[in-house]
Fold this sequence. Notes:
The protein is mainly α. It has helices at residues 2-7, 12-24, 28-45, 48-71, 75-88, 93-105, 109-122, 126-142, 146-156, 160-172. It is 81% helix and 0% strand. Helix 6 packs parallel to helix 8 (126-142).
Amino acid sequence: YNMGLRLNPEATNSLLGLGLVYSKQGNVDSALVYFDKVIEIGKRTNKLDEVANATTQARDLFLEKASNDEKAKKYEDAIASYENVLKYAPQNDVAYYKIAFCNYSLSKWDDAEVAANKALEYTLNPAEKAKIYFLLGGVGEAKKDIEKACSNYKKATANPKYKAQATARTVALKCK
């Protein structure tokens, strides 16, 4: 790959290859440098397949880091990584949901609500929307906005996976 770059410093296939090598070696920072170069040069030279590949690779690196941080309960770090995912995939509903969940876990209710509403905007699957509504129900409850909590919990009952829990919350909150 380096030899190819000596011959043509803008060879996106060589840059992509180096990014992949660094990624496999666990050198995320170097991988991202090369993926970003592919994206920059590829957009300018109309190499859209390589741009898409580099974008996917960069997004996935951040998704993996965010997921690991979230599992370790390093929510602030996870949020930063999920926000980086959005640089490569601005309409990624999963990243928005995860940002909402991490903010919820940190008791940052307003930030959780904003991110959850963005997740709703980009989520197409009604079953997936139910989990977002359930989270928003919890946010409403935490903010003492019982009307909003009830409304969101009722919407969450559309998914059988959340129906029992959401119904229990509506009963506990004495929703109308």
